Structure formats: structure tokens, C-alpha cells
């Protein structure tokens, strides 16, 4: 029998925490929100909270060391998404994009190029504001991933 995945959330700056909890409850999937001590999160039924040191990579390191094959990780961090994929888990952005082998290299390269431009004094645009459409797209993608897992589960 296939193990139930955990939805693990890079929760420091995640704009879709409420949507994750709603979808997880509908599908009976546990959620683990991981954030630094700088962020106040409230545990609730089906949602565990792990607060870690505020250092730069503490959340990413905790998630990377905790996830298992089949888990679903929600993150905006392309570097963490790369580790998640290597561990056999699914990585989703809060806007509903699934990171996979076909797009992660491009995203990492683009991040590197933009960082080089900023270090050289150039300006880059930040992400556009989250819209209701982004939230809906995320919910639909998370639902699709969970339903696909349930359909493919052994009886």
C-alpha cells in the first residue's frame, strides 16, 4: 500500500497557507508548515508546525532532511525545489507551477543570471502580486496532484 504523502510547506513567505490547509483537509493529507521563529504560525487539526532557527537556510535544510519520496513540497525557492525533486518528492510553487526536470534547470539558470545582474548594480523586477487566479490555479494543481496519487495508489 502506498504511504500517504505529507504536504510540507516552506512557510516563511508562503502566500497560500490557507489554501493548502483546505485542500489537505478535503483529501485527508497531513500538512507540515516549516518556518523560522520570526513567523508566528498556529497549529491546528491536521497541521503540524515546526519552527527553526532564523538563519538563512534553516527552513530549507530542515525540509531537505525531512522529506521522503512521494511527499509534496510547496516552495518558491528553486534551490530547494531541486533538492526536493532529487529526493523523489513533488515540488509546487505557490502559483501552481509544478517544478520538474523539464523546467528546473532553466529556472535555476534564470535565478543565477538575475542575481549576477543585481550584483553588477542592475535592477530586476520582483514577482507580481498574488492574484485570486494564482490562488485558484494553485488549489487546482495541488488537488490534481493529490487525486493523481489517490488514483495510482495500490488497493
TrEMBL record:
Region (Disordered): 115-155
Family: Belongs to the UPF0178 family.
Compositional bias (Basic and acidic residues): 146-155
Listed Basic residues bias regions: 115-126
Protein name, UniProt field: UPF0178 protein GT019_03050
Organism: Paenibacillus glycinis
InterPro entries in the cross-refs: UPF0178
Amino acid at each position: 500500500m502506498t504511504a500517504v504523502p505529507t504536504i510540507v510547506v516552506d512557510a516563511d513567505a508562503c502566500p497560500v497557507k490557507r489554501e493548502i490547509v483546505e485542500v489537505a483537509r478535503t483529501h485527508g493529507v497531513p500538512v507540515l508548515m516549516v518556518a523560522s521563529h520570526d513567523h508566528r504560525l498556529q497549529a491546528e487539526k491536521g497541521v503540524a508546525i515546526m519552527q527553526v532557527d532564523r538563519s538563512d537556510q534553516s527552513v530549507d535544510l530542515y525540509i531537505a532532511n525531512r522529506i521522503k519520496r512521494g511527499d509534496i513540497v510547496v516552495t518558491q525557492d528553486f534551490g530547494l525545489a531541486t533538492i526536493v525533486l532529487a529526493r523523489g518528492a513533488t515540488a509546487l510553487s505557490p502559483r501552481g507551477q509544478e517544478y520538474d526536470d523539464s523546467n528546473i534547470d532553466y529556472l535555476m539558470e534564470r535565478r543565477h543570471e538575475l542575481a549576477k545582474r543585481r550584483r553588477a548594480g542592475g535592477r530586476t523586477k520582483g514577482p507580481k502580486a498574488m492574484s485570486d487566479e494564482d490562488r485558484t490555479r494553485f488549489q487546482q494543481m495541488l488537488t490534481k496532484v493529490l487525486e493523481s496519487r489517490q488514483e495510482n495508489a495500490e488497493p
